[in-house]
Design a protein that fits this description.
This protein is of the alpha/beta class. The chain has one domain: Rossmann fold, CATH 3.40.50.880. Helix content is 26%, strand content 21%. The chain is globular, with a radius of gyration of 17 Å.
């Protein structure tokens, strides 16, 4: 990127304060990943969201976090449903729909991917009974680890290559094939104990709309060269899509 070319402005949904330009520890991983790829990370707070105050931007990253309330897709709560936040659900659903409707590149990560699926009319498997490998060992803050079989010809395959990716995992809600929203297509999956989880999916005919269930922003992915295809390249491809979309946008 030329030094005279402004970085594309990327909205990153956050629920932590950003004070004097310093992001909270959790959100800072996303900030670093966006900026390492050449974007300018701009925090947008769930608690302050209003449609008429969204900053100018070229793309959106929606992040991981708490559970999506099943009321959003018309189902009763599972007994193992975790904490939910109605205001956060509403804000992220609105921001996601805005990106999809306006053709702005969207990289939706973990919870963000689940929100993307719900925003498009899909639903969620509310609780995976077996903790590992989708989450780390009980009593720790470690990630789980497993392979993702990448769908040939998908956006993910064009970014990361064909075959299998080794990824981290930190979730108990999931998107299964029968719960994928109309208009979205599978880009990668994993299967354990008879449960198929869609680890990546995309919206065809959109400049860049990709949901991934793992956490490419975390240092355990970005700092390990063996995981580069599943981490840094995702953000680089996303930022490149933002630059391309900006060039095509009138005005």
């Amino acid at each position: 990127m030329s030094t005279t070319t402004p970085r594309p402005r990327i909205l990153v949904t956050v629920d932590e304060d950003v004070v004097d330009g310093r992001w909270g520890d959790y959100a800072a991983d996303y900030q670093r990943a966006v900026e390492a790829a050449g974007g300018e990370a701009i925090p947008i707070f769930f608690k302050d969201y209003a449609a008429d105050t969204v900053p100018p931007h070229e793309g959106v990253v929606t992040i991981g976090g708490i559970d999506v309330d099943p009321v959003r897709y018309g189902e009763p709560p599972h007994e193992r449903l975790g904490r939910t936040d109605s205001a956060r659900d509403a804000a992220e659903l609105a921001i996601t729909r805005l990106a999809l409707d306006e053709g702005r590149p969207l990289l939706a990560i973990c919870r963000g991917a689940q929100v993307m699926n719900v925003a498009c009319g899909g639903s969620l498997h509310q609780h995976i009974e077996e903790r590992e490998p989708h989450h780390g060992p009980r009593g720790t803050d470690e990630s789980g680890w497993h392979n993702v079989e990448v769908t040939p010809g998908s956006l993910l395959a064009r970014i990361a290559g064909k075959g299998a990716l080794r990824v981290n995992s930190r979730h108990h809600q999931a998107i299964t094939p029968e719960r994928l929203a109309p208009g979205l297509v599978e880009a990668g999956r994993t299967e354990h104990g008879g449960l198929v989880v869609l680890e990546a999916f995309e919206m065809p005919d959109h400049p860049f709309a990709l949901g991934v269930q793992w956490h490419p922003e975390r240092p355990e992915m970005s700092a390990d060269p063996t995981h580069a295809a599943a981490s840094a390249r995702l953000f680089e491809a996303f930022v490149a899509a933002c630059i391309e979309a900006r060039a095509k946008r009138p005005g």
